[in-house]
Description:
- The longest helix is centred in the C-terminal third of the chain and has 18 residues, at 442-459.
- The chain has helices at 2-15, 37-46, 93-104, 152-155, 213-221, 232-237, 241-246, 272-281, 284-292, 321-330, 350-364, 377-385, 406-409, 427-437, 442-459; strands at 17-22, 51-53, 59-61, 64-71, 74-79, 119-126, 129-134, 176-181, 187-191, 204-209, 227-229, 247-253, 256-262, 296-298, 340-346, 369-375, 392-398, 462-475.
- It is of the alpha+beta class.
- The radius of gyration is 25 Å and the shape is globular.
- α8 runs antiparallel to α10 and α14 (427-437) runs antiparallel to α15.
- Helices cover 30% and strands 22% of the residues.
- It is built from 15 helices and 18 strands.
- The protein has three domains: 37-167, Dipeptide-binding Protein, Domain 1 (Dipeptide-binding Protein, domain 1, Alpha-Beta Complex), CATH 3.90.76.10; 170-247 and 474-494, D-Maltodextrin-Binding Protein, domain 2 (3-Layer(aba) Sandwich); 256-469, Dipeptide-binding Protein, Domain 3 (Dipeptide-binding Protein, domain 3, Roll).
Amino acid sequence: MRYILLFLSVVVLNSSTLKLSISSNPSRLNPILSTDSASSMITNQLFNGLFKYDKDGNIVYDLALSHYFENNTTLIVKIKPGVLWHDGEPMDAYDILWTYEKIIDPKIFTPHKTYFEFVKKVEVVDSLTIKVVYKKPYFKALHIWMMGILPRHILKDEKDLMTSKFNKQPIGTGAYKLKSWKTSQDILLVRNDNYFGPIPKIETISYKFLPDSNTQFFALKQQSLDIGTLSPLQIDRQIDKKFKKNFQIVEKQSFSYTYMGLNLKNPKFKDIRVRQALDIAIDKKQLIDILFFGHGKISFGPFLPNSFAFDDKIKPSKYDPKKAKKLLKQAGYDSKNPLSFTLITNANNPTRVYAAQIIQHQLKKVGIDISIRVMEWQAFLNTIVSPRNYEAILLGWGLSLMPDAKPLWHSSSATKGGFNLVYYDNKKVDKLIDQGAKTIDRAKLSKIYKDIFRQIVNDKPYIFLYIPNSITVIDKDIQYIEPSFTGIWHNQHEWIKP
């Protein structure tokens, strides 16, 4: 009888545990300090911001109850009453002010700091109301408050937040609390039954540490994971009928693209005809077919397809090697004087290395001779990318629902530490970016960003290549999964594991 009861208890535990995997160690479980995907994956369960995205990519309330603008530069946010930290203490406006003060603290190194440069001051109106005054109208006035809020009562006397124990033992307001975590071991979260929002049906989330993608794939096939991702090779060639019977497959465009960046200070790439030739000499569909078995789409601009910033009237240029040869000849390159350059990429992304080899083969057909250099990631960043010590690079960027064109495309971002890696300089684009930064009307902002999109597509500072698909598999026993534009996690609280 004792053994039967023990077995039943295990079944009950497993039935309310969501089994996921994590491929690397989180650095810090602190929402304003985390920069890696592993940390962000966990902190998203533990912390809340004032706002968040819904399933369609629209801004909705999270900790916020309501908001309004007193004028173009003054935002008032009311906070939901009754929100508790995981230790039972009430969350209030002073936590938001304290979090802001830490973000702008020069001793704190956080990726959020740049986004708060437009904030003039933050004031507490009362315990459940804050006032944010911006230096000028700011198009991301709400978006910057999506980052997780920190507990002032726990951290106010902390001497060094960067090395605080809190980063390993976080206390948030989220739907789940941290139960256990040791480096290179599994992470366990438990449901927060005092959560201010809809309380999740699933009691615990277990993240299994699986640094190798093949090990993760094996775990999925053994059904020891509930949700995972598959590569195009795995989805096309390595799963069987049993796998398809057990898992729901959700495929959508990923929020990233890969590009070939051209150093525009190099005389070879200053002529627009050379850049146009490169663009139509690369068969991007063939790239996608070879690299992803067709599970992807052609990238041809800097913003997320189907977003407010994407101009769907623009179409990708067609593969045309004959025209490419003509353009090269007009620019002064032919068989006697071929265009040649070195393309550099990082070794820890095998797909990019294969892409470089395919591009090398394709460009050879139009008389372009490129050599490939593959480097270790940190060396690539430190000696090639950061100092712009290259002719051409193969890299990728993430795509945002609310893009900020300034870091990548404004000429002022072509300085050391900036992300305008190719020295792109278009005064009209600069003006549009500056105009967009102070435009809070969504329709007007859309018009401005579509204009930016068109200008960049025409200038071709990048040879945009591909957007791979994201392939997620979900155990069919999990009920109420609702795939959407932003993914599957928007209604996680409704999921049930019978």
